[in-house]
Write a structure and sequence with these properties.
Elements lengths: L1 H24 L27 E2 L2 E2 L5 H15 L2 H24 L7 H8 L18 H6 L14 H19 L2 H10 L1 H11 L11 H18 L19 E6 L6 H6 L5 H7 L16 E6 L6
Antiparallel strand pairs: 1-2, 3-4
Helix pairs in contact: 2-9, 3-6, 4-9, 6-7, 7-8, 7-9
InterPro entries: Lysozyme-like_dom_sf, Transglycosylase_SLT_dom_1
Family: Belongs to the transglycosylase Slt family.
Protein name: Lytic transglycosylase domain-containing protein
């Protein structure tokens, strides 16, 4: 009887193993994937590349403090996988808009990663009142020519906000002397960085003792640059079709008030939600425009929201 029970148990175990093997063989696949997506998860210590730089300015990794701080940001951002994948997806959508504006203004391309850590490439709102992808404060926006009020807030206009960010960064670079310090000043302000450099008798970001946020700021930018530039190296697997794409639009000029954006949107075959998705700077369901200012409203081309 025991022999029979053992035989049955062995047969059962063999059947279970066979089913498990078949289950693995039938795991979801895609014609563009060579490796099946099955429980492939491991945690590794990371090797910090020895040639990391920001805007061509090398990170002094021979300094053990700098090495530890860089390692921390690479680890945190590599193993925050869901956020990492979202950054890859959004970068495909928004970098093509940001990159040519940076180039036109002679701003190093690396500053697009500053926008990533500022807002996650979303129209974020900070507790301090900063808005949009570039997290621009109200006063800074107005000083640099943006319209900022309850009806229209151009801090949410990606192209115009990127232009303002460029102006600020150029001024910071001129005042502080390096792109690294200009990046830090985007977080802590030109006056704040200048004061700390003076108080501590140093001239370099990496020699400054700073608070938690600004102290991590540049390392986070460099970590995102390294990871987004080398997805496979850091374990991120995706196909081109997994990334987000920009919906093509055309511009409609408006130099009068618009009393109802719902009706306005319907004239172009879209609804109010779609209009706002492409024009987040329009903050209310109407446009006051008492000054008869000329606005350009983005309308998606036919067929993209059918």
């Amino acid at each position: 009887m025991k022999t029979v029970q053992k035989a049955l148990a062995f047969v059962g175990l063999l059947s279970l193993c066979t089913l498990f093997i078949f289950a693995l063989q039938d795991a979801p696949t895609d014609e563009n994937f060579e490796t099946k997506l099955i429980n492939d998860y491991n945690v590794y210590a990371l090797q910090v590349p020895d040639d990391l730089n920001f805007a061509g300015e090398l990170v002094p990794l021979e300094n053990p403090d700098i090495l530890e701080r860089m390692d921390r940001e690479l680890l945190v951002n590599t193993y925050w996988q869901s956020n990492g994948l979202l950054m890859f997806k959004r970068a495909k959508k928004y970098f093509p808009i940001i990159e040519p504006i940076l180039e036109k203004n002679n701003i190093p391309d690396d500053f697009k990663y500053l926008a990533v850590i500022e807002s996650g490439l979303t129209n974020a709102v900070s507790p301090a009142g900063a808005r949009g992808v570039w997290q621009i404060m109200k006063a800074t926006g107005r000083e640099n020519g943006l319209e900022v009020n309850d009806n229209v807030d151009e801090r949410y206009h990606l192209e115009k906000a990127t232009e303002v960010a460029c102006k600020y960064l150029l001024k910071s670079k001129e005042q502080l002397g390096s792109w690294t310090l200009a990046a830090a000043a985007y977080n802590a302000g030109n006056a704040g960085v200048s004061r700390r450099l003076r108080e501590q008798g140093v001239s370099d970001y990496y020699d400054l003792l700073l608070g938690e946020e600004t102290g991590r700021y540049l390392f986070r930018i460099i970590a995102l640059k390294e990871i987004l530039s080398n997805p496979a190296k850091y374990g991120f697997n995706f196909r081109e079709k997994d990334l987000y794409s920009n919906v093509p639009t055309y511009k409609v000029e408006v130099d009068t008030a618009v009393t109802d954006f719902t009706s306005f949107a319907e004239k172009f075959g879209i609804n109010y939600k779609i209009l706002k998705l492409h024009n987040p700077w329009l903050r209310e369901p109407h446009l006051n425009n008492k000054s008869k200012k000329l606005y350009q409203i983005d309308i998606p081309k036919d067929g993209y929201y059918q």
